[in-house]
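P.,

For your records, the input lines for the assembly:
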Amino acid sequence: MDSGSRPTQRLLWLASMDLHAAPCPEGPWEWQRADSLRRGEQILEEQRILVGIFLLARKDLVTLPHLEAFLRRHCQVEWVALVDPELLWEPRVRELLGHWCYDFHSTPVDPNRLRVILGHALGMARLLTRGEPGPLPGQAGGMLVGESPVMRQVLRTITKVGRVDAPVLITGESGTGKELAARAVHDASPRASGPFEAINCAAVPAALVQSELFGHERGAFTGAHRARQGHVCRADGGTLFLDEIGDLPLEVQSTLLRFLQNQTVQRIGSDREEKVDVRVVAATHVDLEAAVREGRFREDLFYRLDVLRFQMPPLRERDADAVLLARHFYQTFSRERGHRVKGFSAAGLESIRLHRWPGNVRELINRVRRAMVLCESRYIQPWDLGLEEVLEAPANLRPLEEVRADAEREAITRALALHQGNVSAAARHLEVSRITLYRMARRHGIPIPGPRGGDGAVP
Ligand SMILES: Nc1ncnc2c1ncn2[C@@H]1O[C@H](COP(=O)(O)OP(=O)(O)OP(=O)(O)O)[C@@H](O)[C@H]1O
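Structure tokens returned:
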């Protein structure tokens, strides 16, 4: 349904021949006219257009490959073709309509029918782009897609952390977006216009990490034919991102500690100290506290880095974000190469929702990318994503009692979080008495302030 506040949609009327062949039907939209593919291309680059019409007459057969390339590039638009009925016998035309168009209408145009088709095409386009993510208003991390409460919290944290110049430690499983979060911290900081230098400590051979980070003078060691600046100096005025910090060799840990204490670096083979102004953001997927206990990571360095810490939650804990991200990457990849796949089937989306995503966002990207290549129908199915067994897994069909208990636990936790632990407000929200809420919380092992304010106790 159209809501009054929705902005008017713009539709593209692309007619390389007679613009008057048919009148543009009136509707809750406005028309942008293009009399050539090139002009159409310009309009589509400048404006967000969900639905377009093009005319196809016999004389256009010669330029059909150009039209097809154009439609491939702009496959995010729902295209409606107005076709000379004679052309419907042409295999090339049939293929083009089948692959790239939402619908077609044979000429002469019946304005009422065309209006209905356009209405449907617009509805479908809105449906498919409904979850199209964008930056959350007023928050850092515009590139970080996510609307779940945990991700909103992460984005709020990033905004706050961005304002302060202290070191940051980002924890989280592999593929959860730690590097993206580090970049978001940089973008939210006063250093945003400075460089963002990233180094993956696990990917650089142990013998080279020192020189990669701090640089070296010419002849400092065998193979050092030229003097070289390290990542730390290149990050001057900006942010240095140390990914997989847990893999930093112990001797380099001491140099890094010295640098964090003095903000000076000394290239290998040099006796001169250089002053640099760098903010460090480190990330790890291993438990650094355990590494400290086991003597693999210096305790003093750990405390230097662990000033502002936040965790990137695993994808399985981000509610509907997996579906949102799948749609986001689908849009990104179809823009990149053009594709005839139109989106996800309902079963495809359900398999994405149910999967546990051990490889997190990176796994999701790979599965969507592969599905877009392998998909043989218009909508991505669970088997294209390699997730067919997810729907069949008996684990997804659980006894009602268990499902109810989970839902209850989640509702109580969320209500308490929403009302910052205020039991009366949470109880009102859940439409139960305070006593019932205490009883249920006790049953589910949820700590809430006791009736006389005993913080964190289960009464
Ligand atoms: N919330 C998100 N929105 C959009 N893209 C994301 C998001 N999270 C992760 N990605 C993408 O997922 C991929 C993996 O993210 P990233 O490299 O930041 O993860 P990581 O936690 O640093 O992984 P690792 O620990 O293996 O280095 C990247 O391509 C990144 O752009």
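Two observations worth noting. The chain has four domains: 9-129, 149-311, 316-396, 400-444. Confidence is low (pLDDT under 50) at residues 1-6, 130-140, 452-459.

Regards
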